[in-house]
Amino acid sequence: MNWSWMTLRDSTLGSVLRSLPNALQRARGNMRPSRSKGAMYAACRVSGVQAIELAWHRVPGGESCMDGSELAQRVEGIIGRRAFVPAGKGSTIVVGTAGPAPGGRGWLAVVEARSAGTDATRRELGVDSPDCRQLDEAIVLVVALMVDSTEPQLMPLRIPAPPERPSVSIGIDLAIAVGMLPGDALGVGLASEIRIPPFWPVALWTHAWPMSLALQDRSGGRLGAWTLGAGLCPLTLERTGWAVFGCLDASGGAVSSNGVGLDVSQSQTLGYAEAGARAGLRVRIVGPLFAAIDGGAAVPFIRYAYRFTQADGTIHDVFRTAAVILEGAARMEVRVP
After folding, report:
1. Which of 104, 156, 253, 321 could disulfide-link to 303, CB 3.0 to 4.6 Å?
2. pLDDT score at 156
3. What is the sign, positive or negative, of the torsion defined by CA atoms of 229, 232, 238, 243?
4. Could you write out the three-class secondary structure of 30-81?
């Protein structure tokens, strides 16, 4: 009997899966069954392929683990053909269980391939995680290799890419806008991105913009703002450790103003809205910590003009919202998972 065990933790499961292409050839050679009983081996073939049964069970407490029908479907997707026959019609039986690990810590899966005239091949897979489904990829790989080892000729296995998981990020965002407020306005706030495949990522942000001065001869106004926005990011190119993205977005908020150096000073708050586009780059710093920069342009829905009137009736324009607002941002963010 061949016996081995493997313990998988959340932090290492990804590296195990990334190493599959190099490990497949070695594993297939090590797991091929003995052919000492040539006549019996040949008699069990169905169209050149050995008939295999799958007996998969979830032990009490393991109801959240992968069931047998899903396991069979995923294994057949990897090897590219129908692999399993009904109970009692196979010459090889792959028997397995999944459920809570002894002591109630983590989860344990036991897989064993049994065939007449050969030693049984047994694998134990464990993961220290609150979610039994963290074992799925490892179980599928082990069963696929056991099935593949019965092939009369080695055929290439197709390892499908794992489905993209939902993720979320949040971080501190420093922004600059030219044309929304007097001068080069600086804002500070929070930015986030939510991904729920297969939909486009959704970007969210909010900023506070400290007061900026718009003066002529020491008279004029002080303007500040707060904004919040959202965008869809249909253009995303991701590679290991970095990504580039493009988004279409809109934001709104309010611009507050009050007079400076005037005999009669008035304050007012006006609504603000704009739509635009931006592109950016995101780079992994370490672990879940990323740095990102982006830049773009936006068009305001309404352009406000700010002015004051002197005692002699002369009107002075001190600021007007630009027709096109140039924007940029830099942030540090944490992305999970």
Report:
1. 321
2. 65
3. negative
4. HHCCCCCCHHHHHHCEECCEECEEEEEEECCCCCCCCCHHHHHHHHHHHHCC
Sequence-separated (6 or more) residues with CB below 8 Å from residue 48: 152
Q: Choose among 235, 230, 44: nearest CA to 152.
A: 44
- Measured on CA atoms in the order 24, 29, 34, 39, is the torsion positive or negative? positive
- Is the pTM here over 0.85, yes or no? no
Q: Are strands 49-50 and 45-46 parallel, antiparallel or unpaired?
A: antiparallel
CB 235, CB 204: distance < 8 Å: no
Q: Are 51 and 43 in contact (CB under 8 A)?
A: no
Residue 239 tokens, joined: 């590679």
Q: Average pLDDT in the 301-328 region?
A: 90
- Find tokens 């009997």 and name the residue: 1
- Using 50, 70 and 90 to split pLDDT, how confident is the model at 86? confident
The CATH number given to 167-336 is 2.40.160.20
300 prior amide bond cis, ω within 30: no
CATH of domain 2-148: 3.40.50
What is the pLDDT, as a whole number, of residue 216? Answer: 84
pLDDT given for residue 51 in this prediction: 80
Q: Strand (E) positions, 116-241?
A: 121-127, 167-178, 184-195, 202-216, 219-239
Shortest CA distance to 308 belongs to which of 260, 246, 252?
Answer: 260
pLDDT band at 154 (very low <50, low <70, confident <90, very high): low
Cα gap 99→65, rounded to integer Å = 7
For 21-67, what is each residue's pLDDT tens digit?
A: 444 444 444 444 433 333 222 223 334 457 889 999 999 999 999 99
- Domain limits, the chain: 2-148, 167-336
